[in-house]
Design brief:
- The chain has about 230 residues and is mainly α.
- The chain has a domain of about 100 residues: Iron/manganese superoxide dismutase, C-terminal domain (minor pseudopilin epsh fold, 3-Layer(bab) Sandwich), CATH 3.55.40.
- About 55% of the residues lie in helices and about 10% in strands.
- It contains ten helices and three strands; from the N terminus they run αααααααβββααα.
- It has a three-stranded antiparallel sheet with strand order 2-1-3.
- β1 and β2 form a beta hairpin.
- The chain is globular, with a radius of gyration of 21 Å.
- The N and C termini lie far apart (about 70 Å).
- The structure holds manganese (II) ion.
Length: about 230
């Protein structure tokens, strides 16, 4: 055997063992379900690109790092993972809360949004909204007020509680309805990274814009599925 052949064999062996030692990451960035510019002019393409490709990717990468030594945690769906903070090993709990919450919240957020086409809640969801908040427009006012009132970074949510009641609330940082055993129907990201390029400090203006790109077809279909 020549020295060259030996070197080739060594190189192949090295690559194979590197592959064996590097399993595929447990959590992956979902593809944005529309183009970056699909929410223009309400949400600009550059914000969407940075928000999805950089911010969301960072939550995914950091979550993968956090659970690297915990194959059982790494095998779970992220929504299930963040429901179990109380029983989580202390060494990973804060990272799962922040990075797992960030991954779950953003994966859901991309689905809640969509190109503006004047979609409306289904009749069943409309009935529940009217019962809980008097009317669609009062609901939207209260949602905007909840989102505008978040101090610092966080989210506003419409969720179903364990009795299938509608709940409007907010969460700080990347906390999430799943952590309270609720199932979100819609969420609004009010971290500055969600709007600062286009709206700077004008959060209320951003909230008016985001209401134009809520995908009520998705939200209604999720409501139907969750209500069984
Ligand atoms: Mn965000």
């Amino acid at each position: 055997m020549t020295r060259r052949q030996l070197l080739e064999i060594a190189a192949i062996g090295g690559a194979a063992s590197a592959l064996a030692q590097t399993p595929a990451p447990a959590f992956t960035l979902p593809k944005l379900p529309y183009a970056y510019d699909a929410l223009e002019p309400y949400i600009d393409a550059q914000t969407m690109q940075i928000h999805h490709d950089k911010h969301h990717q960072a939550y995914v990468d950091n979550l993968n790092k956090a659970v690297a030594g915990y194959p059982k945690l790494a095998a779970m769906k992220v929504e299930d993972l963040i429901k179990q903070l109380d029983t989580m090993p202390e060494a990973v709990r804060t990272q799962v809360r922040n990075q797992g919450g960030g991954h779950a919240n953003h994966s859901f957020f991309w689905e809640v949004l969509g190109p503006a086409k004047d979609s409306k809640p289904s009749a069943a969801l409309r009935k529940a909204i009217d019962a809980g908040f008097s009317s669609q427009s009062q609901f939207e006012d209260r949602l905007k007020a909840a989102a505008a009132g978040v101090f610092g970074s966080g989210w506003a949510w419409l969720s179903l509680d364990d009795k299938n009641g509608l709940v409007l609330d907010f969460s700080p940082n990347q906390d999430s309805p799943w952590m309270k055993n609720r199932r979100p129907l819609l969420g609004i990201d009010v971290w500055e990274h969600a709007y600062y390029l286009k709206y700077q400090n004008r959060r209320v203006e951003y909230l008016g814009a985001i209401l134009k790109v809520l995908n009520w077809d998705f939200i209604s279909s999720r409501y139907k599925d969750l209500m069984g």
